[in-house]
Task: structure prediction
Amino acid sequence: MTETTRRGMAWAHGNLTVQSLGAMLGPVTFLLPDGRQVSPLHVAPWGQDPNRTTLPPILQELRGEWPCVPFGSDGSRPLPKGWSDTGESFTGADVPHGHGSNVHWNWEDCDDRQIVLTCSYPDGHPVRHLRRRIVPDPRAAAVDITLEIEVRKLCRLPIGLHPTFRLSPRPGSVAIEPGNYGEVHSFPGDVEPGGTLFAPGGRWSRLQSVDTRDGTTVDAGSVPLDRNAEELLQLVGIDGAVALHYRDEGFRARLEWQKEHFPSLLLWYSNRGRRVYPWEGKHLALGVEPVCAAFDLGPAVCTADNPVASPTAPTSLSFHPDHPFITRYRLSVEAAPLG
Result:
């Protein structure tokens, strides 16, 4: 595999790094008005481990934020009643979070104002090309990102964004503050054997009161959780905004996106619940992922009828070869009270 290259950029309100593998953004250090520097995005600790080359490319230098086209992956997995994998599939649909998450992107128009990368997909794949533009806001501690998708043919795909945030060890030290949403859904099975927590296939009205498998309830809006788990929750019908309040550090990270493109928010709780290499029961991070998808179950499930999909919150989008898809989103930080 081509060696990962990285490019950095500094501006009046911070500095950032982007890598060629997966076009992953991170770390990003923001400068708050009071002079403090904060770095909310997660960088996996095994990035220099020589054994990481045995991992899927997406995991080898996992960090920060990147696009997933398509989101999730097809696979042989048990599906409970009400779920089906009879939707649209294709060669390459089994690649974790899509081809672009696992290959090196090409550097394009990069200067002191922007970083632009592109990725061409294999012949025969319904996706032809991705373009990603990362622009720091010269007036604020914020980064604006644009994703363009070109396809070869009419198709439906689940898509998503994959911001991953760092967590401190103290349980409940970070509050998840979503915008308005409809329901909370839990994964319809085991995300990780031995790392289960939430009652499978559940629905709740509030993130702060989610049933567990042992009959108790947990506040899933405060992280890290107070027990080891590897889990997923999906906030369906969200209005395109979420914030993380770092209570012990006195700042808030905010993510805003186009809700018509990503009507759900997937929360990935990597809470020391996965014990195999490279996770080893130590990995602590929170994925805060705007999606048009049903969890990470891949194109064949997301384009079929499923319990998450609705007219206002679909789990796949239609793409047309004559009309490139363009979406915009923003990551920012601001000072916030302690506690």
User: Anything to note?
Assistant: The mean pLDDT is 97. The domain at 6-335 is CATH 2.70.98.10 (Beta-galactosidase; Chain A, domain 5).
